[in-house]
Design the sequence.
């Protein structure tokens, strides 16, 4: 699995629960974010359709675009199996603090209270601070014989998703790094100093924000070897959301899709 890129420390006690609620409030704009013009429709094409025919509108609301990686409405850890994509959300950390779900467990959807428009579930993780390399959640985008496999992202412009932080107090992460894993940056691949994946920082606020992240904006941080100019998007091995060292975090993410 992809989280084997990162060394693990000694496991600690099971974390306590955090408030899973969210404000579900208005969407604020970021330089790399797109505001929800409708104020309540979800990002993955699952909002209710307009018109006077209630039955037709309900049927339209159930249609999920084939661009959606996961809308978290099915109650399991697997991403939506469409357009050749498959995989499951996982959790990993350096083992020196607490994270919910625990390291090595699958990340199951959590109820949104209140719902965000038509969306009733999202992914939720919280914990930290971790002192060695941090903590993350992630998923493969394709599998073969039960193992992660390459997925071609080269025809897509970017990733779009909804995100918020459940806590914005002192010492809490104000950003999370979204990484796209490739054979050139994962352990066992082409790198000599690994895990410096192509990625970008995503700002976090207390309100839900829909973020458009162009794949052309992804860069390595600079410690990896070799340093590359562009990611091998034709062979994407997965995506991860990584928290840096020495910060606590309370991440909600929903309606992950390609565009």
Sequence:
């Amino acid at each position: 699995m992809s989280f084997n890129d990162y060394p693990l420390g000694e496991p600690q006690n099971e974390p306590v629960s955090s408030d899973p609620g969210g404000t579900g409030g208005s969407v604020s704009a970021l330089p790399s974010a797109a505001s929800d013009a409708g104020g309540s429709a979800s990002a993955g094409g699952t909002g209710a359709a307009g018109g006077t025919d209630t039955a037709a509108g309900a049927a339209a609301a159930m249609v999920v675009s084939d661009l959606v990686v996961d809308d978290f409405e099915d109650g399991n850890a697997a991403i939506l199996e469409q357009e050749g994509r498959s995989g499951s959300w996982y959790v990993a950390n350096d083992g020196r603090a607490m994270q919910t779900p625990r390291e090595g467990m699958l990340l199951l959807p959590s109820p949104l209270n209140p719902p965000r428009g038509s969306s009733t579930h999202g992914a939720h993780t919280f914990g930290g601070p971790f002192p060695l390399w941090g903590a993350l959640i992630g998923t493969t985008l394709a599998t073969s014989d039960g193992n992660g496999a390459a997925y071609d992202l080269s025809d897509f412009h970017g990733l779009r998703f909804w995100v918020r932080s459940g806590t914005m107090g002192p010492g809490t992460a104000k950003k999370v790094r979204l990484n796209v894993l490739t054979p050139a940056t994962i352990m066992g691949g082409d790198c000599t100093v690994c895990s410096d994946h192509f990625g970008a920082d995503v700002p976090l606020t207390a309100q839900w924000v829909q973020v458009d992240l162009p794949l052309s904006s992804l860069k390595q941080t600079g410690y990896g070897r070799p340093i590359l100019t562009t990611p091998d998007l034709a062979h994407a091995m997965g995506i991860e959301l990584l928290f840096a060292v020495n910060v606590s975090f309370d991440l909600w993410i929903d309606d992950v899709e390609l565009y």
